[in-house]
């Protein structure tokens, strides 16, 4: 049985999960692919994808490293792959508790994983341990607390968005997510021994009725019960979802903070 602090509110098998994965892939995969290329992903690489979700990044990595490279995609609840590949293996795995082969991978990646784990430093260290010397690690998480309104039809709409979004953040934090982890991930990467650290932040405008803003809809629909229990009236949620369709409303997307670095070729002396 999962302990409360390990509960992941936006579960892979939730009814809204396929829509969430689709939005994340359309809005963020291009940025992730760019960061992986900058890290040095190339044909022949052995790759680890942690928290693979629906597998869009893992599938792209498998294509990128073919024909001689391979990808191991792990998740607590792996989603069925719609595009299986001979060089892509999928495994049920807990990055905090379950072992990985040491010194095995050239590239490791985790997106929107560490912020949800109370033992995130252990998970980060486990991924570093799985890298070969000189291997690269990319970790990416949302700056979840930061979603400012850019344009609004009226001041009440701004207050409504803030009310629901703040309640969503409280639910996530209550389940163990660190909404400010992204701001600390660079320092954490150095703490676990990565060197040659780099970072990149991706953000864009999400307008009502557009593709990206649908992420707010699928997330809050999946957590509807928890949001109502937390004090958001059902009619306020309905008005919030209607607001997300209004082209006169616009917000800044969740900023995806990407941090990457390398495992030293030789053990560091302390």
UniProtKB/TrEMBL annotation:
GO terms for biological process: methylation. It holds the Pfam family Methyltransf_11. CDD domains: AdoMet_MTases. Residues 48-138 form the Methyltransferase type domain. One of its GO terms (molecular function) is S-adenosylmethionine-dependent methyltransferase activity. InterPro entries: Methyltransf_11, SAM-dependent_MTases_sf. Transmembrane segments: none annotated. Keywords: Methyltransferase, Transferase. SUPFAM superfamilies: S-adenosyl-L-methionine-dependent methyltransferases. Gene3D superfamilies: Vaccinia Virus protein VP39. This is Methyltransferase domain-containing protein. It comes from Glycomyces harbinensis. The lineage of its organism: Bacteria, Bacillati, Actinomycetota, Actinomycetes, Glycomycetales.
């Amino acid at each position: 049985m999962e302990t409360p602090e390990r509960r992941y509110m936006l579960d892979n098998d939730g009814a809204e999960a396929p829509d969430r994965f689709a939005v994340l892939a359309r809005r963020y995969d291009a940025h992730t692919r760019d960061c992986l290329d900058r890290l040095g992903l190339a044909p022949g690489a052995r790759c680890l994808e942690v928290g693979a979700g629906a597998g869009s990044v893992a599938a792209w990595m498998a294509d990128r490293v073919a024909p001689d490279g391979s990808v191991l995609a792990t998740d607590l609840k792996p989603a069925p792959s719609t595009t299986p590949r001979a060089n892509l293996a999928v495994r049920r795995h807990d990055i905090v508790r379950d072992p990985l082969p040491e010194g095995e991978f050239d590239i490791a990646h985790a997106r929107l994983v560490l912020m949800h784990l109370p033992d995130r430093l252990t998970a980060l260290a486990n991924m570093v341990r799985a890298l070969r010397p000189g291997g690269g690690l990319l970790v990416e998480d949302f700056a979840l607390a930061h979603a400012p309104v850019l344009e609004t039809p009226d001041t009440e709409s701004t207050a409504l968005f803030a009310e629901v979004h703040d309640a969503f953040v409280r639910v996530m934090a209550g389940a163990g997510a660190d909404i400010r982890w992204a701001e600390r991930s660079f320092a954490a990467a150095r703490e676990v021994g990565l060197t040659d650290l780099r970072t990149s932040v991706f953000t864009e405008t999400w307008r009502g009725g557009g593709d990206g803003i649908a992420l707010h809809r699928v997330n809050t629909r999946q957590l509807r019960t928890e949001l109502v229990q937390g004090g958001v009236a059902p009619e306020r949620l309905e008005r919030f979802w209607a607001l997300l369709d209004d082209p006169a409303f616009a917000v800044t997307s969740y900023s995806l903070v990407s941090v990457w670095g390398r495992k030293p070729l030789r053990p560091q002396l302390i």
